[in-house]
Amino acid sequence: xxxxxxxxxxxxxxEVLARAAKAGGxxxxxxxxxxxxxxxxxxxxxxxxxGVDVWLSDERCVPPGDPRSNMRLxxxxxxxxxxxxxxxxxxxxxxxxxADAADAYDAELRGAExxxxxxxxxxxxxxxxxxxxxxxxxxxxxxxVLAEPGLEPRVPRVTLTLPALAAASHIVFLAVxxxxxxxxxxxxxxxxxxxxxxxxxxxxxxPTTAILDEAAASLLG
Length: 221
Ligand code: 6PG
Prior knowledge:
Helix 1 (6-23) packs across helix 2 (35-45).
């Protein structure tokens, strides 16, 4: 769906998240900066997450209080504002060496069935921490892997893999702004390619939705 601006895009994403939270289930949340407003609106619309298990679609390997931490974003914008906390929260164990943190997240994810995954989109076409033309895109069996940073912040990342994402019942991309327009075209209109990892991310079990503002959607045609 295309919204007039970023605020309406955040509201649309918040509506999806709030509905999922009220229904209860397993939700993987995105990092980056775009979802912050959506998380704030979600906390207001659905302050009871007691039926929800929270995961991250990716994490930067930095301490939990670091401003670059995706879990910190999720806590500040969403979890800390809830009246009833989630049933469980699954941070990436960034206190471990990055490869061990990826192994631990992979093991923890076995048996988890994701009902909803929220993802962002990078101007280079990456999503989660699946970067263009990297070996992580070929991973077939693991649910989480260590990814080398393709962009700032250049710290090791732990990311869900393409098969883990494809198994989710519903995938929602949220992207706003003109700097995402070319990537959105490559991700949602053009032929799927490893040059644009977001183009490879589609739910095999249900819908894949993109929430874009007019600027991000301006090259969709
Ligand atoms: C991360 C991400 C990443 C993000 C995009 C968009 O940890 O960096 O989860 O995939 O969603 O880079 O980031 P912005 O929302 O900051 O543009």
